[in-house]
């Protein structure tokens, strides 16, 4: 949408901050399609634990993934207060179950700190950077890396 | 509009033109033709030539020109349609289609394969012309344009004559002359004549200038103010002369003069949409259309300047898909509303329920209409296949007659598109392997000309396509020997006849002694089977020694909806494709046996392995006791299984929603659908389900007991 505009104005990036598994994360607003309330899903057989099932999003069948479980932070307890963040990854649309969504942050790309942790297996981390906001620190999620393998695994 | 899309349009048009060309030739071949048939054939070839010229496909033009010359002679009765002439023009039509195809794929086509044909065409033309002086080129020009007939005005009628000359600014502001004309039409009886004499040749064409002038004659009780009001928005953007009728101001003569041909279609390139697009491609677009004689649009032009005379509408399939999706949603939405109203305790006789019934009726009607947009007759495909057969016949030197039946049968476009390759393989095989040589046929007491029949028909919710030949039939001994030689079956295998026939579909199998350029590379039939299976269809063979073989393809009508059986599995609702359901059983406890930890169900003396869907899919079954559950017998991929389900709820059509786009494939699951309550139900892939459980099944010997 306003990608280029914001880039012209000194690389301001907009993030949506959310929490899952007791940790704070943020996701670029450009990859978020909508945010909706949790509703009952249809379970998928042979799916990994973090895939809760599929949901009807106005006629499209989209998989819902428990973000906390996908990140290895335990499973999210499902209740009516949970939020599903619908994101677009490439051409795929999927929903992430999170505890809550807090706010939209406009930050200068300079303020994003690189992720200092190095994974022992050498794989790319799902957290591309850290974003300090007030007293807390948000992890910048790389959705592509986090969900890239989904289709292949299932196939 | 980019050049690329223009080219696509060109090729799409070529396809249609070749279709009408083939159609025309068939009529000629049948003998029931008249002058108009020949005209239509000629026009088709000429249109291709004209448009190809605009795109610089010179080879295509050269060939079309030679072809057209002969057709023109036929048209002007200088050449009779003798059998050899008919053969020549039929072959030329095939070659032209081939050239167009090659050009589409490779951007150009070589004339080498058709060099001889051009020679023949030229020779034929020369012979025919020998006794008549050569006709000037473009003899067709008068036909295209002339009938600009303005109906004779009734004398002393009240009305106005209007000269409407929009300038460049008129178009730049996004105005459309036709809108003004239709507004005028509402005021009275309007006759329209477009004066295109000011349009310069293309090289001097300035896209920012409005060249067209309309001479209008409006009859009826109206006043000048009303007319001025129509043009209120275009004030200052066009020149408008309004004069009352009956004062010696008939329509200017110019309208009845034949304008140069390309102007006939000139309303097509009004600069109206140019400001946004840039200038270059627009005239190019006009050229292919304009170069064609395209008589019907030209005739229509005088009455309505908009050249909107089109019998078919070309639509991006994605838009249709979107429409289908939305209609599916509409139907689901109806079900949701109906459920909600039900739960409010409204009786079925309430007014709102009656209105809802109308809603459902309308929604179904829209759904059917939308589905029929996607359905297309197999005609075009069959015509292409006719070419394949003729080519194959020429290449093998076997005289072949191609018979097609049921050309009006309609199939979903997606299926249709993917049928071309398998059918080509099968037809080539039929000619190459199926039919004998002329000598052998004579020896066998058959007519020398072999026939290959392609037929399509609707049969109980399926489309059945048959490819049959009247050849020697399958040589089962040779097939078996070949399969053994290639190691596809063990040397000591005892196979039944159908099993031997099915060897043809195995990868790497080919019985042709010599690899010809037609078939015999052993990549044919297994590809055929894979393609058909992926479309949800089946292929079968039947063959009689000495009488020929028949390949039968059975396909679903559409890929978008499916007849399903709604079942309950654990807490979930799932859908079984009705096509693979044989029966549902509520067995006695003694019908269920346990063999080595696995359950089998005895159905009339046969033992069928039981698949517990809830268990397989890792869900908790609502009912533990297997005897209390219902069983659905599935027949898929040549094997039967009994599926244990918790409930059988309903049978209905469901709209198929792919899982692959957003998620990926799931073993045993074909797709998903959305139920009346908005929830998603998974559609079970019967074949995959059988395969999913077959390793276990094969590990265990199945004992057949006598009933």
Descriptive notes:
The complex is a heterodimer of chains A (155) and B (707). Chain A contains four helices and eleven strands; from the N terminus they run H-E-E-E-E-E-H-E-E-E-E-E-E-H-H. By secondary structure, chain A is mainly beta. Chain A has a single domain, classed as Beta Barrel (OB fold (Dihydrolipoamide Acetyltransferase, E2P)), CATH 2.40.50. A six-stranded mixed sheet of chain A has the order 8-1-2-11-10-9. In chain A, a hairpin with a 2-residue loop joins strand 10 and strand 11 (136-141). Chain B is of the alpha+beta class. Chain B has five domains: 3-139, Up-down Bundle (Four Helix Bundle (Hemerythrin (Met), subunit A)), CATH 1.20.120; 145-300, no CATH class; 317-375; 378-556, Histidine kinase-like ATPase, C-terminal domain (Heat Shock Protein 90, 2-Layer Sandwich), CATH 3.30.565.10; 561-699, CheA-289, Domain 4 (OB fold (Dihydrolipoamide Acetyltransferase, E2P), Beta Barrel). Chain B is 42% helix and 21% strand. Chain B has 22 helices and 22 strands. In chain B, strands 14-18-19-17-16-15 form a six-stranded mixed sheet. Chain B has a five-stranded mixed sheet with strand order 6-8-9-11-10. In chain B, strands 20-12-13-22-21 form a five-stranded mixed sheet. In chain B, helix 16 runs antiparallel to helix 20. The radius of gyration of chain B is 33 Å and the shape is flat. The N and C termini of chain B lie far apart (71 Å). In chain B, 35% of the residues are buried. Chain A binds chain B through residues 40-47, 51, 54-56, 58-63, 91-94, 150-155, and chain B through 325-326, 328-329, 332, 572, 616-619, 657-669, 672, 674, 678-682.
